[in-house]
Amino acid sequence: MACSVMRTAVQSSVPLLQFRAVSVGAPLSAAHFSTSSPAAGEKKHYRLCIVGGGAAGISNGSKFGRKLGGKNVCIVEPSEVHYYQPMWTLVGGGVKPFTQSGKAQSDVMPKTVDWIKASAQEFEPENNIVRCSDGTVITYDYLIVAMGLQLLYEKIKGLPEAFQYEGIGSNYSPKFVEKTFRAIQNFKGGNALFTFPNSPVKCAGAPQKIMYLADDFWSKNGIKSKAHVSFNTALPVMFGVKKYAEVLSQLCERRGLNVNFRHNLIEVVPDKKEAIFEHLDTGEKVTFPYDMMHITPPMGPLDVLKNSPLADSAGWVDVDKETLQHVRYPNVFSTGDCSSLPTSKTAAAVAAQCGILYNNLSAILDKKQPGKKYDGYTSCPLVTARGKCILAEFDYTLQPLETFPLDQGKERRIMYHLKANLMPELYWTGLLKGRWNGPGFYRKAMRLGLGK
Predict the structure, then answer these.
(1) Alpha-helix runs per DSSP H in 145-241
(2) How many other C-beta atoms can be found within 10 angstroms of the C-beta atom of residue 219?
(3) Catalytic-residue membership of 252
(4) pTM across the whole model
(5) Under 8 Å CB-to-CB from 254, ≥6 apart: which residues?
(6) CB 448 within 8 A of CB 123
(7) pLDDT 10s digits, 241-270
(8) Which of 92, 149, 162, 422 could form a disulfide with 268 if both were Cys (CB 3.0 to 4.6 A apart)?
């Protein structure tokens, strides 16, 4: 029940050891890695190859590492740091320190898998081959693709160069997330803009959550009366689920937050402090002056996937939305942000997907018929202020699929503590260890077995 945590193509400039409380000042050594990995350029066969070391990759690795045993599973992942990205909303809002959001990749990598510390460079699913950037060639019996997506700041003219200027931040990148709270703190009045792009995004609620946190901060620090706050979104609605959209619209009206629908950011002119938007219905270019701006970048599939036989026409891994199995290659599966699954890209979705995938692939490995179906469950904890949160949960049909036996469409303190304090622990010790498959069991238990 948290927003997306997939690895992105943007790499951090933060030193690795900043996240290693037990290893500060110590050099990296082989002891930090899981099992021994093949030498660069080597050819090696695995029963299961997992490409991607974000939430989905590590969770699947933990599950299948236990099932298949050492040397039978590998994870292909180049990153040194593993981030819990849902925390970045709270980092950008000044609630949590950035250092709490990451750990060394070697600390979360399952000890029962081989870590191929490289990136996937080419997929040959017809030959069961993955070619890696260090020359390693992997052959496999089964493949799980969990590579995340990429941030496309460069699709907006003036970015990423504009981040060199004060007053602009973005919670979607480790490079820019701390700039967000500096911009909020330094804002003394004027126009504050918050954007949502014309593309799929991970955690579709995050672009407006930071607006609510900023507005709350300014209210508590005497800036509110001097602020003109606008949410410029490419979407035609506040949120994809009607129940929560109505609540959020009422919240914006009550707090005096302006919403401009169908406005897509296409250019930033930082020396003039101007943001240029295209109205997607009329094609009109509209210029907004700003004193502070949070930017959510366009996002899309990684190039290596777009150019592979695994992709659908949009570049996502083409899987059946219920079984998570590839529609053309039956020994290939996918979970998380890189998949074609038509649900919101969140870590909550990943947890549920990993449970379904494990059951279905395990059945195949055991020569049984897979039978589990994914219903599209996903979740977005919509933080509306420090101490307040609306916990949105829903399925493929965009109908609420709430866990607790109370109305989750209301702002509640308990949901805020769930988001801020429980979910990070659940992520590190539950999801990444392969022991958390989402709240489905608890939802049924709390509702006495009634409903989904």
Answers:
(1) 177-186, 206-220
(2) 14
(3) no
(4) 0.91
(5) none
(6) no
(7) 999 999 999 999 999 999 999 999 999 999
(8) 162
